[in-house]
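Hi there,

I know you've been waiting on this one. I reran it after we fixed the sequence typo, so this is the corrected version. Both the input and the resulting structure follow.
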Amino acid sequence: MGCIFAHFALFAVGKSFQHDAVPELPQINYPDLPVAQRRDEILKAMRSHQVVIVVGETGSGKTTQLPKMAYELACEEGKDGRIGCTQPRRLAAATVARRVAEEMGTGLGERVGYQVRFVEKVKDETTIKFMTDGILLAETQRDRDLRQYDTLIIDEAHERSLNIDFILGYLKNLLGRRKDPVSYTHLTLPTKIV
């Protein structure tokens, strides 16, 4: 008998991207989703570990709720870097960004934005940035330590594209150079229930 699980691992990558001021913590609403119900446990793990793995079924809210939790934690700790969230496809990056912006009560491109090839809806004050894997790879050429990000969430890592494989290897090496937290994520793997 098999079951599908999605894994998230969060590597918080430290602060360097400077905003004029640390963002004020807005009222963050979490829908009644399984990941949101485990919010306190997830935040506790994120505070304590450089890498965190969160397991949840498809539709449990990992893609939309974990970036909000990372943002909440960054505000709580006074960090001013971005939360970077990758998606393997342009449409997914744009759609998820719209959803999270709506849930956070902000306009798209303001507190929550996205960047894909040929389209960038990101401002200086954007704190949660959704992007394709290729955009993050391109950013490694200009910013080897990805200092603009406090947290990176790499979604759909189970798809095992060359981009994902390269990013995961890159982040593994980055963990040795940066002692502050990073993020990595969302594997859907067949498992056996014993």
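Quick highlight: The chain has one domain: 2-192.

Best,
R. S.
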